[in-house]
Queue: 2 jobs
Job 1
Amino acid sequence: MRRNLLIIIVLVLSIIYNPVNAQLKYTINESWHFTKDSTIVNINQFLAQKNRGELVNIPHTWNDKDVVDENKGFYRGAGWYTKKVRIPSSYKNKQVFLFFEGVSTAAEVYINKKLAKTHIGGFTRFVVPVSKFIAFDEGKEFTSFDIIVKADNSYHEDWPALQADFTFFGGMYRDVNIVVTEAIHFNIEDYAANGVFITTPSVTEQKGEVHVKVKIKNDASSTKKIKLITKIYDPNQKLVQEKSNSLKLKSNISNEFNLKMKPVLNPKLWSPDTPDLYKVVCEIFDETSNKKIDESVNSLGFRWFKFDVDKGFFLNGKHLKLIGTNRHQDFKDIGNAVPDHIHVEDVMRMKAMGSNFLRIAHYPQDPIILEMCDKLGIITSVETPIVDTVTESEAFTKNCLSAQLEMIRQNYNHPSLVIWAYMNEVILHPKYKNDKVRYKAYTDYIVQLAQKIENLTRKEDPYRYTMIPNHNSLERYQSAGLTEIPMIVGWNIYNGWYGGSYELLPSKIEAIYNAIKKPMIITEYGAGVDPRLHTLTPTRFDFTQEYGVEYHKYYLEYFKKKDFIAGVNAWNYADFSSEGRVDAVQSINNKGLIGIDRTPKDVFYYYQASLLKKPFISLATKTWGQRSNLEDKIDSGISTMPVQVFSNQPEVELILNGKSLGTKKVEGAIAVFNVPFVNGSNQLIAKASKDIYLEDFSEIRVNVLPISLKNFPVNGLSINVGDQRFFYDNKIDQAWMFDKVYTKGSWGHIEGEPYVRPNKNKQQPYGTKQTIKGTANDPLYQTQLVGIKQYRFDVPAGVYDIKLHFAELEGSKAKHLPYDLSEKTTEKIKTANRTFSVDINDHKIINTLDLLGQYGEYQAVKIKSEIVVKEGEPLIINFKKIVGEPVLNAIEVYKKL
Ligand code: GCB
Ligand code: CA
C-alpha cells in the first residue's frame, strides 16, 4: 500500500516536474582575460607568452577609447580573449556549443588549445560545436575546458567592409553563450539559425497560410524516430492549431521537413498600428519515451505587402508611406559593446518619434533590434556590409555570400522584416577610374557579385524584396548595370549638405525615377548637426541645429508628397562613431537626429511633430540651456530671437514670462515666434489651441549682452571670433556669442576677415573642419579672423581677465576622407608662415607668437592675462604683424573687480 502510494507520488511528481530537456542557453560574458599586442598574431605566439591580460566582461571592444583619446591611435589587429568554463560532467551525453552573437571582424575559436572554428564577418552570429574537444571528467561533478578567442579587426582585402564611414570596432562585442542540446536538436549549426523557418506564402483578411520548414540534426549514431509537435498560438496566447508529425531522422545530418499548417482563419493582421504577433512553437519528442528533447519558439506575423514603382508601398492592401531612420549600433564612450537595453530603448525611441520604418545599416545588428521592431511595428530592411569598394577575389565573393546567407537564415522569422539588402554605395570610390577597360572589369565584377547575392537571396527567401542602396550618381550605377539587379533601388541623397542646394532634390529624384523604373527608397538623406551650434542665418554645412531642421523639413515635405517614393530613411537615427571622420566633433558623424548619447536634437522633435498622430508640442530649446546675444537696441536690455515650436496642432500660442506673444498657425509642423528675451531667466510656455490641453515649458537663460559695456556682464563676454554661429558648451554651461565689428562706445573687432580655406573647399562655409587638438570645442577654433588688427572693448575701469584663443588652421594638406561624397580633390594648403605679437593696452602680452612653430597645426592655444584698466581708458587688444597675418579664434573677457 505504502509502496503503491510512493509510486503514485513519484508518477505525479514526474508529470508535474517534467524536466524540459530542451535546449539550454546561457551567457558566459563575465570575467574573460583579454590582451592585445600587435606582435602577437597567431596562436603559437599567444601561447608562448604568459600574459593573459586584464579581466574584461563581454560585450567588449578594445577601441572604445581609441577615438576619444587623440593621442592613442586606433588599434586594428588581433585581440585575445581567454576563459576557463565549467560545465556539469553529465553533459557528456549532450551536445555542447558556443554561440557567438558577434565578434569583430574575424574570429578563431580554440577549445582546449585546438582550433574549433574560424569565422569571418563581424556582424553575424556563429556556432562552435565544442563537445568533441572536451574530455569529460566523469569521476567529478564538473568538467572544465579552456576557450581562447582571437578576434581580429585588421584591414583585410577579403573581409567586407573594406572601408566605410563608421568605426571598425574590434572585439567580442555581443553576447557569448553556451548552448546545450540533446543529440537530437534543431540544427543551430546551419549558419547559426535556429532550425525553424516560417513563411506565409499567402495572406488575406480571411486566411493566412503558414509553412514551417524545420531542420533537425541527429548527432546519434543511428536513425531515430521522433514526434514533432507544431503549435500556433494567437496574439492572446490561445492555441489555434496543433500538428503532430512522426519523423525519422537520419544520423549525422541535418534532416529537413516542410510542414504545411492549416490556414489560420481571419488572422489578426500585423502592421505598425497593430503589431499583433502569433507564435509558432515547435517541439521535438522522443517517440518511445515521449520525452521532450528540444523546443523552438518563433514569432509569426500575418501581413502581405508590395512595392509599386509608381504608387509606393502597400501593407495589407493599404498604402503606407514608410518613414524612419537608419541606425548604427554604437553608443557614447562604449563603442559597439553596448548592453541589450540600449538597443531596446533605441527602438522604443524610434517608435516614439513616429517612425514606421528602419534601415538597419550597414550590417546586421543585435537580435534584439528585430525582435523589438516586430513587437512595436516598425518595418525593416537589413543588409550586409559591402560598402564603398570591393576586392575582385574569390575569397571576397565567398565572404559576401556567406554573410548574406547567415543574415537571411538568422533573421528569417521576423514579420517586421520585408527587405534583404546588400552593398552600399559600392561604386563610391571605384578603382581604376582612369583606365576604362580596367574600370569596366571592376564594375563587371561588382555586378556579377551582386547577381550572385541576388540569386542566393531570392532562392533562400522568395517572399521578401531585395535592395541595393546607391549614392547620388545615377549614371554610374545605371551604366554599370547594377540597378538592373535588385527588386528595389535605394538612393542616398545629400543635396544641400555635401553640395548644392536642397532645392535640387526634386529634379534629382525625379530624374532617377524616370530613368529606373523600379520601386525606390531614399535610403539616406541627412545633415550634420552639432547640438552646440546655433545660428540666425542657417547655411549648408554649418552644423547648426537650425539648418538641420530646415534641411529635414524640406526633404520630408517633398517625400510626403511623392507616392513613387516608397520609403525614406533619415541618416541617421543617432550620431555615431566614425574613426576617420572630422565633423564638428572629432571621429563622430553628426548627422543623428539625436546625439551619440541619445539626447534629442531639435530635428528629432520636428520629426515627432511631423509624424505622430497623437497631439504633440515641443519647444526647440531643449539643448540650448544658456545663450548669449546682443541686445536689440542700446540699453534696451532685450534681445529678440526666433523660437521654433514643433507641433501637429493647427495653432499654437507662446507665453513669455506670463505674457502671451500671440497665437500662430503651424505650418509644416513648425510655428516660429520672435521672442523678446530679457536678461537672466525666461520662462516659455507653448500651448496648443483651446480645444485640447497640450503644452510644453522651457526655462531659457539668456545673457543679453549690452551694446555699451557700462554695466559689464557678471559672467563675462565669450565671443566666437570669425564666425556667425552661437556656440553652447554644454559640458560647462558656457554660452558663446558670435563676433561683431567694433562700433564706438561698444565692442568688437577691428579689421580682419573670417578664415576661408585657401582652395575654397566647397563643403565648408565656416573655417576648417579639421580636428583641433587640446579641446572638445572644435567649432570655436575651426573659425578665426585673419588679419585682425584690434579687438576693442569700451569698458569701465576695473581689473579684467582676458583670454585669447588661437589655433593655426593652415599647415598641412587636407586629406581626402573615405566617406567623402565629393569627387577626389588634391588640395594643396600652404604651410603657415605667421608670427605676430599681442599687446593689451600698454602691456606686451605675447611676444612673437608662431603658432605653427611653437604649438603645431590645429592645436588649441589659450593665453590668459590680467589687466588693470584705468578710468576713461578702453581695453584694446592689439595684434601686431611680424610675418603673415595675425589671427584670433575666440576671446573671453571677465571683469574681476
Ligand atoms: C553615405 C554613407 C554613410 C555615411 C553617410 C554620410 O552615403 O552610406 O555610410 O555615413 O553617407 O554621413 O556621409
Ligand atoms: Ca572661432
Job 2
Amino acid sequence: MNHDEMIRHARQVLSDNDRGTYTVPTHGLYPFQWNWDSALSALGFAHYDEPRAWLEIETLLAHQWDDGMVPHIIFHQPDDGYFPGPDVWSTGREVPTTGITQPAVAGFAVRRIFDRARDRALAEEKARAMLPKIHAWHRWFYRCRDPQGTGLVAIVHPWESGRDNSADWDAAFERVPTEGVGSFTRRDTSHANPAHRPTDEQYKRYIWLVQKFRSLGWDTSKMHDASPFLVVDPGFNAILIRACEDTADLAARLGMEEIAAESRAMAEKGIEALETLWHEPLGQYVCYDRAIGAPIESPSVGGILTAFAPIPHHRAAALVRRIETLAKSCNYLIPSHDPTHAAFDGPCYWRGPVWLIVNYMVADGLARAGQGEIVPRIIGDCLRLIETSGFAEYHDPITAEPCGGPHFTWTAAMVIEILN
Ligand code: 9YW
C-alpha cells in the first residue's frame, strides 16, 4: 500500500464509522460515541473536512454534565451490541451517557485543529464556543478528582484511563469486591477474540464500581472519596496538563484572559506534581495508588505517555532511553507494557499491544521537547503495522498481529494525521 492508498483507506474507515454528528470507534464492538476517540478522530477529519472535525468535538461537548464532567460514552442510539449499556449506568440523562470520564485530550485537539485551520473564521468561532466548556471540564477534574489539591487527579475506574485492563491496575483492583454483581452477558467477546480482551473477573469488578457510583446518585463530587479504586495515572495526568497548557495558549490568543490564567496555573501545578511519580530504577514515571498511598511499580506505557506534557528536558531525554530499551525486546514500538515484565501479554488489549494514538502523543511530545531523533522510528512503526496488518484497534508488538476490533476510527485518523 503506498501512502495515497493508505490515506484513501483511512478516509473510508472514518466515513464508514461516521454517524453524521459523531463517529463510532468501530461498527459492532463499540456502537456509541467515546470521548477521547472522538477528540483524536477529529484530527483526521480536519485534514479534509474542517466543519466535520469541529462537529465531532461539538457533539461530545454538547453532552457535558452540569458539573463540568464530559462523560466517557454517549449512547446516542440504542444498541444491544454493547455491555454495559445505558440501563446499567442509569445516569438519568435525556440522551444517556456513562457517569465516568476519559482522558481529557479534547483541549489539545481543539488547539491543534485551530492552529492548522484553513477556515480561520470558523476556527475562531468554534474555539471561542468550546474553550469555556473544556475549561469547565478541566476545573471539574481538579475539584472532584484532586480534592486535597495535590496537583494530580485520580481515576476512580480503570475505564477512565482509557487503558482498561493495564497491569497497572491489577493490585489496586483486587480491593474492588465482586459481591452483589448479578449475572450478565458480555458482548465484547462476541465481536473480538476473548483472548485479546479483559477477563470475566475484571468485568465483574468494572461493574461493581459502576453499581457503587450509581448508588451515590452519580454525584461526581462523592465518587473520589467513596471509591475503593483510586489511582493517579501519569499518562492520564499528562494529557490533562497538556490540554490545560493548550487551552491557556489558545485562550490567551483569543483574549479570554481568565481562562488563560487559570489554565496556565493548573498546568504548572500539574507539571510540578508529576515529578513525584518519577521512578528512577525503572527510568520512567509510574502510577500511584492513592487509596493506600504507595507507588505502583508497573512498567507500562502510562508512564511514557507523560512525554505528551511539558515535562523537564532531562525527563524527556530519559524517556527516550527507556523507549530505546523497550525497542530491544519487541519489533514494533511502543508496547503498552514492558515485554520483559511478567505481566506482558502481546495480543491482550492494554497489557502489551501497540496503540497508534499512544505512539502519536508520545512522538508529538518528544518532538516538542527537542527529542525528535526517535520520532521517525515510533511513527515508522505505526505505518509498518498498518501496512502489514491493517487498521486494527491495536497490534501485537512482537508479531504485528491485528487485534481487537477491525476498521478502527482513531487508528485511521492517526494514519491521516501522520501522512499529512
Ligand atoms: C471498552 C473505544 C474505547 C477506548 C478505550 C479502550 C476501549 C472500551 O475502547 O474501551 O468497552 O472497554 O480501552 O481506550 O476509548 O475505542
